[in-house]
Every structure is written in structure tokens, then in C-alpha cells.
Amino acid sequence: MTSTLGKHEFSVLDSEQLLDSPILSLRRDRLVMPGGGQGAREVVEHFGAVAVVAVDEQGRIPLVYQYRHAVGQRLWELPAGLLDIAGEDELTCAGRELEEEAGLAARDWGVLVDLVTSPGFCDEAVRVFLARGLFEVARPVAEDEEADLILDWVDLDQAREMVLSGQIVNSIAIAGILTATEVMAGRAQPREVAEPFAFRPDSLASRRQSAGVSPDMKKINR
Question: Its GO CC terms (predicted)?
């Protein structure tokens, strides 16, 4: 007997946009479920993001200590940011964020890991880069939460211990630090930066660009 498990097509019957805000949108899809029934699923639409593990010649990485209002606490994180500029590729965005948050640029780039952060309700996906061959550049004047962030250099091995001890809880930082540890120990190789970012979300960005919201896709009328 041939099993049909894992073969159902969850086709979308209709969609309703429930909320539209500068950095995300919320929609409700009605899907065809196995057995012929229907079910509603809410999806938080996101621009996607990038993050950077920047390793210097001493094996240290910059970490930022930044307030995150959703959890009401400051968290240790990697330099990171949204893919919110229309037409900007992931590597360009990563270079911009590394400059803005750490005052650094890099000569050597690779891809450490792609991750889908909360697939149960959100289409956010993040590409984490490895940056080496670092040099200092002028850091732009910070605004909003970034005006309060602390930048600190930490040995990569110490950052790994901070993950394992629970001091670092940001999932993007955890994934980036642990994969960077494998690469720097010679047990893995970074991927090419030209490799397509298959999970990069498109729904929110496409809708904003179709409405003429460009280049900064966050700038909508509220």
C-alpha cells in the first residue's frame, strides 16, 4: 500500500491582510488541509535579515549589547539588520550593518548558515555571514536603540561558552557563533556568498515595491 503522508499540497484558497506596519505585516491564509477540510493560518511577513560573525586576527568577534523591547531586556547579539532596502543583496546589506554597528569592513566573506527563525507563524529568514580581513571604517551616527548599544570584542571561544551558559539567547547569534566555531577550528568550510538565499522572504518586499515604497521599504504611511 502506497502512503500519501507528506504528499498533500497545502494550496491557498484566499488571503486577508490583517495588519501592515513599517517592519512587518500580518496576513491570514485559508488553506486546503489533508482530508479536504479547510484551515486558517496567520503569517507574520518579514523582510528577512542578515547577521555577521566578524573574526579578527586574534580570534575575537564584535558583539553588541542592545535593548530588545519585545522581551524587555538587553541581549548580546551579532551585528545584524533587516533586508529593508529595495533591490539590495544580502552581502551588501551585511557590509552596511557591520559598518553601522561595529565601524568595520572586511576583505573576505563567506556564508555560515541560513536559518528560518520562527516557521510556525513567521516567514523571517536570516543569512549569517563570516567576515575576515577586518579593518576599521567610520561609523555613522547611531539612532534609536542603536544609540544605546554597547559594542564589545569577545574571543570566539568565550562567545561559544556564553552560548552554552545561557548568556547569549538570541537564536541568530547562537547559530552564527556555533557554526563559526566549526569553521575556525577547521571542521567545516563557509559557503560561497553567491549561493542563492532560497528562503529569503518576498511577500512583504514585493508588495511594498509594487506600491512604490522604495528604496527604504519601511517608510509607509501609518
Answer: cytosol
Active site residue 88: no
Distance of CA 43 to the CA centre of its chain: 17
Name 116's Cβ contacts closer than 8 Å, sequence gap at least 6: 123, 124, 125, 199
- Reported pTM: 0.94
Three-class secondary structure of residue 165 per DSSP: coil
Q: Read off the pLDDT of residues 58-115 as tens digits, 9 standing for 90 and up.
A: 999 999 999 999 999 999 999 999 999 999 999 999 999 999 999 999 999 999 999 9
21 and 126 co-located in one domain = no
Range of the domain at 41: 12-45
44 neighbors 121 (Cβ within 8 angstroms): yes
Q: Among 45, 88, 90, 146, which one carries the catalytic annotation?
A: 146
